[in-house]
C-alpha cells in the first residue's frame, strides 16, 4: 500500500518532521519538477521562503550518462577530477559540454522563475527537497551547488529513499527521510498519485509561495490555524484543508472544478492571496477518490451543491460563528455548484466568485441567488465567456463580469492567474470583511458590468 497519497501529502508530513527549523532563517529549495509540490508544503509549514534549485549534470562526451560534474545557477560548477582524468576529457570537450548544458539550465531557469531573482542563500540554513531519491546523484549535486552559493548549512529532506542511499550521502550536513526501505522499489511505488508535475504547476506554486510571503512579511508564526480535516457528509468523509487567521471576519469555501482537487496549484495560489488579505479559506474535495472515478459524479451539480452546503453548515457549527461571513469560490463546474448552493433557501452566503466557471450549470436556480457574484473569465475562453453572459441574464443578484485579457480557460498565461486572484480578493474583501473608513464598497443592488 502506498505510503503517501500524493506529493502534497508527503510535503505536509515532511514539514511536520522539520518543524524544529521554524524561525531559524531557513530557505526551502525544491528540485524541479516533482520536488516542488513537496517543497511547497514544507515551506508553508516552516514559514520559510520557497525557491527552486536548478542543476544540470555534465556528462562525459562519449558516455553522457556518466557524470563528470554538474553546474548550477550563478555560474556555479562542480567537477569530478577523477572521472575527467580517467575518461581523458579535454578542456575543450569540457567547455563544449558545459556550454550546451548551461544553455539548457538558463532556459529552464527563465521558464520557472519568470523574472524572479533567486533567494540569496548566503549564511542561511538551506533545506533541499525532492519527492524521493533513487540513486541520489541529483540531490548530491544540488547540495554541492547550494554550498557554493553561500549556504551555511545544507539539509536534504525527502519523503522516501533507499536505506543504503541515505547512509552514503555525505554532501548534506543532515538528511531527513520519512521512509527508507531496505527493499526499495522506485520512488513512484510509494505514492498513490505520482502523476507528472509540469513547469506550469511549478510556476504556479512559486507564485503562490511568493504571494503568501509578500502579504505576511516573509514568515514568522502569525497565530493562524491550519488544519487538515475530514468532514462527514451523508455517509462519506470529504477531505479538506482549513486556514483561519487569528481574527477571522470572513471565510471562503472553494468548490473545485472537474479533474481538480484541494491540491490544485491554481486554487492554492488564489487561497494564498486571500490569506494575505486576512481571509480564511477551506479547500474542499466534494467527492471521494472512489467517487471521482465515475465521471457522472463530477457533473452532478446537485450532489456537489448539497455537499458544499452540508460542509458549510458543519464548519459553522464546529467553529461556533467564528468563521465570520462566508463566501464561495468556484472554478469550472465548481462554480455551478457554488451558485446552486448559494440559491438554497436560508443560505447565508455573503458573496460568490467564479473563475473560468460554468454558472450556467446552476440552471434555473440562478434567479434565486442573492449573494453578490463576480464572474471572472479569460478573454480567450470564448465558449465559456458566452455561457457566462447567458447566465448573467438569469441572475437577479448584484453581478459583475470581469474579462482577463488573453487568458484561456486555466489562466495559464503569465500574470493572468494573479489578476484573477486580485479581482477575487477585492470582491471578497468588499463583501466579507468590515469596511474600513475610506474604502469604497460596491453597491448592494443588482447591477452588472462587462469589463473589456
UniProtKB/TrEMBL annotation:
One of its GO terms (molecular function) is transferase activity. InterPro entries: AB_hydrolase_fold (IPR029058), Dienelactn_hydro (IPR002925), FrsA_esterase (IPR050261), PRTase-like (IPR029057), PRTase_dom (IPR000836). Residues 306-417 form the Dienelactone hydrolase domain. Pfam families: DLH, Pribosyltran. SUPFAM superfamilies: alpha/beta-Hydrolases, PRTase-like. Keywords: Hydrolase, Transferase. Residues 17-187 form the Phosphoribosyltransferase domain. Belongs to the AB hydrolase superfamily. PANTHER family: DIENELACTONE HYDROLASE DOMAIN-CONTAINING PROTEIN-RELATED (PTHR22946), POLYKETIDE TRANSFERASE AF380 (PTHR22946:SF9). This is Phosphoribosyl transferase. It comes from Pseudarthrobacter phenanthrenivorans.
Amino acid at each position: 500500500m502506498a505510503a503517501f497519497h500524493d506529493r502534497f501529502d508527503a510535503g505536509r508530513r515532511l514539514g511536520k518532521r522539520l518543524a524544529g527549523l521554524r524561525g531559524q532563517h531557513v530557505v526551502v529549495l525544491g528540485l524541479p519538477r516533482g520536488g516542488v509540490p513537496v517543497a511547497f508544503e514544507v515551506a508553508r509549514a516552516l514559514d520559510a521562503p520557497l525557491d527552486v534549485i536548478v542543476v544540470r549534470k555534465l556528462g562525459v562526451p562519449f558516455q553522457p550518462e556518466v557524470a563528470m560534474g554538474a553546474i548550477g545557477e550563478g555560474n556555479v560548477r562542480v567537477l569530478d577530477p577523477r572521472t575527467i582524468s580517467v575518461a581523458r576529457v579535454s578542456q575543450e570537450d569540457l567547455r563544449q559540454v558545459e556550454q550546451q548544458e548551461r544553455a539548457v539550465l538558463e532556459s529552464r531557469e527563465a521558464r520557472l522563475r519568470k523574472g524572479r531573482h533567486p533567494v540569496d542563500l548566503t549564511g542561511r540554513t538551506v533545506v533541499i527537497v525532492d519527492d524521493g531519491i533513487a540513486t541520489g546523484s541529483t540531490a548530491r549535486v544540488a547540495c554541492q551547488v547550494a554550498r557554493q552559493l553561500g549556504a551555511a548549512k545544507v539539509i536534504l529532506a525527502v519523503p522516501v529513499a533507499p536505506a543504503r542511499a541515505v547512509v552514503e550521502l555525505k554532501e548534506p550536513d543532515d538528511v531527513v527521510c520519512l521512509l527508507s526501505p531496505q527493499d526499495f522499489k522506485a520512488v513512484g511505488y510509494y505514492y498513490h498519485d505520482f502523476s507528472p508535475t509540469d513547469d506550469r504547476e511549478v510556476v504556479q506554486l512559486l507564485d503562490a509561495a511568493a504571494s503568501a510571503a509578500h502579504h505576511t512579511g516573509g514568515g514568522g508564526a502569525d497565530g493562524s490555524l491550519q488544519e487538515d480535516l475530514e468532514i462527514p457528509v451523508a455517509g462519506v468523509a470529504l477531505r479538506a484543508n482549513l486556514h483561519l487567521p487569528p481574527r477571522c471576519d470572513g471565510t471562503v469555501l472553494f468548490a473545485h472544478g472537474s479533474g481538480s482537487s484541494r491540491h490544485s496549484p491554481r486554487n492554492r495560489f488564489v487561497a494564498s492571496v486571500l490569506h494575505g488579505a486576512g481571509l480564511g479559506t477551506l479547500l474542499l474535495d466534494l467527492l471521494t477518490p472512489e467517487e471521482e472515478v465515475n465521471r457522472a459524479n463530477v457533473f452532478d451539480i446537485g450532489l456537489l451543491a448539497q455537499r458544499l452546503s452540508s460542509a458549510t453548515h458543519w464548519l459553522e457549527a464546529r467553529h461556533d460563528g467564528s468563521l465570520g461571513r462566508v463566501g464561495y469560490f468556484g472554478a469550472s463546474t465548481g462554480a455551478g455548484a457554488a451558485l446552486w448552493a448559494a440559491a438554497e433557501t436560508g443560505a447565508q452566503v455573503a458573496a460568490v466568485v467564479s473563475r473560468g466557471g460554468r454558472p450556467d450549470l446552476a440552471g434555473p436556480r440562478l434567479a434565486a441567488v442573492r449573494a453578490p457574484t463576480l464572474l471572472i473569465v479569460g478573454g480567450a475562453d470564448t465558449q465559456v465567456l458566452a455561457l457566462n453572459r447567458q447566465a448573467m441574464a438569469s441572475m437577479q443578484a448584484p453581478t459583475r463580469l470581469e474579462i482577463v485579457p488573453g487568458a484561456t480557460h486555466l489562466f495559464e498565461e503569465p500574470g493572468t492567474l494573479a489578476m484573477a486572484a486580485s479581482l477575487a480578493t477585492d470582491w471578497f474583501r468588499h463583501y466579507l470583511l468590515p469596511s474600513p473608513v475610506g474604502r469604497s464598497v460596491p453597491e448592494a443592488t443588482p447591477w452588472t458590468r462587462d469589463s473589456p
